[in-house]
Specification:
Elements lengths: L3 H4 L3 E6 L4 H15 L3 E6 L24 H16 L3 E4 L28 H15 L3 E4 L9 H17 L16 E8 H14 L4 E2 L8 E2 L6 E4 L4 H10 L5 E3 L2 E3 L4 E4 L3 E8 L18
The protein binds zinc ion.
Length: 295
């Protein structure tokens, strides 16, 4: 086993649902820790095969036409990771192991092979292997609602939390490596006052035909729920470039962006988290995901 822990004392694992979530939700955080020498490992659970496509010349990629969007998005994710300086990115169980389940309530939720229908323990086993290899001190994922109710985001939460438990259990599949207890687990969050202000600014300044609603934005919580504020100002450019690399999914316009619905949202370089396992560092709010973790 490679001695990852000897070379890179700080190790951050992020579990996201689709290619593009990592850049939108945690792009500045990933760029900052990568630049600071931490090992940043991204596990993406699906290829995002069910997504819509923004550029007309790529419209043929969608599931109802060529159904090659998943493959295409592997390339977009790789390009985004170059912008963020992240070398270690993987798909849960390998590329295409779990298919995008679509938005809640659509027929794709019941398709064999989709992530929503995967057994949580079976899927978590793939993640335990990554946890025991990389031995991260910090795990970032979504809350039990997946931030906003998308089945793949809910399932990413379940699988990540299950893997957190199983990876620490020495009796669970010792062939996957030595047991590892992740010190801190965070949910990605968005303070309500921050997104409300950002959406007001988008309504005034952004060039998109409309503006998203608060309910379109994942992870919105009362401000006081946020425990940790990550200043990624120095990495705003890297985050915007990573989002632009997801050509089929995101349009970036200055300090704003839109998904395929063409509704403007603020592109925020400060990212927010809620600690849900482990102990907080000394600062309130915390300004470092590794605060209090032995190096
Ligand atoms: Zn997603």
């Amino acid at each position: 086993m490679s001695p990852v822990s000897d070379q890179q004392p700080r190790r951050l694992l992020l579990v996201h649902a689709h290619p593009d979530d990592e850049s939108i939700v945690t792009g500045a955080t990933m760029a900052r820790y990568a630049a600071e020498g931490a090992r940043v490992t991204l596990v993406t659970c699906t290829l995002g095969e069910g997504g819509e496509v923004i550029p007309a010349e790529l419209a043929h990629l969608t599931a109802d036409r060529d159904d090659t969007l998943g493959e295409h998005r592997i390339g977009e994710l790789a390009a985004a990771m170059r912008e963020l300086g992240v070398e270690d990115f993987r798909f849960l169980g390998g590329p295409g192991r779990y298919r995008d389940s679509g938005m809640m309530g659509v027929a794709e939720n019941d398709a064999p092979g989709c992530f929503w229908r995967a057994g949580v323990d079976e899927a978590a086993g793939h993640l335990v292997a990554v946890v025991r290899e990389v031995r991260p001190q910090v795990l970032v994922t979504y809350d039990e609602q997946g931030g906003y109710g998308h089945p793949d985001h809910i399932q990413a939460h379940r699988v990540a939390l299950r893997a957190y438990e199983l990876a620490a259990d020495p009796a669970y599949r010792p062939e996957l490596g030595a047991a590892w207890r992740i010190a801190k687990v965070y949910y990605a969050r968005m303070p309500r006052s921050v997104i409300e202000r950002g959406l007001r600014e988008a309504a005034e300044k952004a060039a998109f035909p409309g503006v998203a609603r608060v309910s379109d934005v994942p992870g919105v919580v009362p401000d006081e729920t946020v425990t940790t504020v990550l200043d990624g100002t120095a990495y705003a450019g890297a985050k915007a470039a990573a989002m632009r690399a997801h050509v089929t999914q995101i349009t970036v316009d200055g300090e704003f962006f839109a998904l395929s619905n063409d509704l403007g949202q603020p592109l925020l370089a400060t990212e927010y988290f809620e600690l849900v396992r482990g102990g907080l560092g000394p600062d309130r709010p915390e300004t470092d995901l590794f605060a209090g973790v032995e190096g």
